[in-house]
Amino acid sequence: PGRPLDTARYFIICPDTLGATQTNFEHTTSPSNSGLRMKFPQYIERDMVNAHYRLITETLGIAHLLAVTGISMGGRETVQFAVSYPHFMDGIFPIVGGAVLTATATQGRLRGPLMRSIITSCHGWDNGEYLENPKSCASNALSVLASYFYTAQWWRITQDTPEAYTRWRNALSEYLDVQDARDMFYLLNSSGRVGDAPGFDGDLVKALGSIKAKALVIYNPRDQLVLAEDFETQLRAIPNARALVIDSIAGHAIAGNADPQATRALGEAIRDFLDELSALKLSGR
């Protein structure tokens, strides 16, 4: 209550996504959680969005949303949601994430195979049929991304001693060390392309142009994981889109409170955007 996603004002639906990889709570269907292991069907992000849509409409009985949001991969799912179900929400605000375009995809072609090879060559992997999760396999694979979470300047300023790094690594253990290797392997194969949604023939710009929701695209021009040129391309392609640009040495991690000033800017923009959507809804526009 009182925060930008204000539970005193809004009904917040925060589902675990299909294939969620964390092991520290009981989560939704995944290869390991289902017991199917490597017999689990491969899925893509569009399947995740379809599962969310069915949860909201069929289980909760909700016909329309004020807004959809998500961070990083959740930002990609947010954009996919608006393409797949363009009349289902009034607004979207993807945060440091969106449709994967050329620059980011090029990076991904390097990182993805490396992360998969770390998992599949790891002791205890057993072709994905293990009975006990070799958690170091997933945490080592995810560590490939760690250097991209922040800028080189952030690393230089904040991680200037071994003790500083130990504090950072211990804090991140709640993310890195609670992953299931098999579920992570599946997730790495799940990306899909927004332009491949039915009706767009692989044309990403056409797919983005179909979005009806008002869009606030929140990004950091110094982001090393999703690059600024990709965010800018999306802003040009999505009708009714505007940007909140937060310039910070925290890079991609502005969404994780790595920079308190960025956190404040995020909060103010989210609050204002939701107020705007609510006002438009009340006015019937």
Write the layout of secondary structure elements.
Blueprint (H helix, E strand, L loop, with lengths): L30 H4 L10 H15 L5 E7 L1 H12 L4 E7 L6 H19 L14 H15 L2 H7 L3 H15 L4 H8 L15 H6 L4 E6 L8 H10 L3 E5 L14 H24 L2
Parallel strand pairs: 1-2, 2-3, 3-4
Shape: globular
Contiguous uncertain segments of 5+ residues: none
Helix content: 40-55%
Order of strands in the sheet with most strands: 1-2-3-4
Mean pLDDT: 92
Strand content: 5-15%
Look at the helices and sheets and give the structural class: alpha/beta
**Number of E strands:** 4
> Biggest β-sheet, characterized?
4 strands, parallel
Radius of gyration from CA coordinates: 19 Å
| Tally of individual helices | 11
Distance between the termini: 27 Å
Describe this structure in words.
Strands 1-2-3-4 form a 4-stranded parallel β-sheet, sandwiched between helices. The chain has helices at 31-34, 45-59, 73-84, 102-120, 135-149, 152-158, 162-176, 181-188, 204-209, 228-237, 260-283; strands at residues 65-71, 89-95, 214-219, 241-245. The longest helix is centred in the last third of the chain and has 24 residues, at 260-283. The mean pLDDT is 92. The protein is globular. It is built from 11 helices and 4 strands; from the N terminus they run H-H-E-H-E-H-H-H-H-H-H-E-H-E-H. Helix 10 links the parallel strand 3 and strand 4 (241-245). The protein is of the alpha/beta class and 285 residues long.
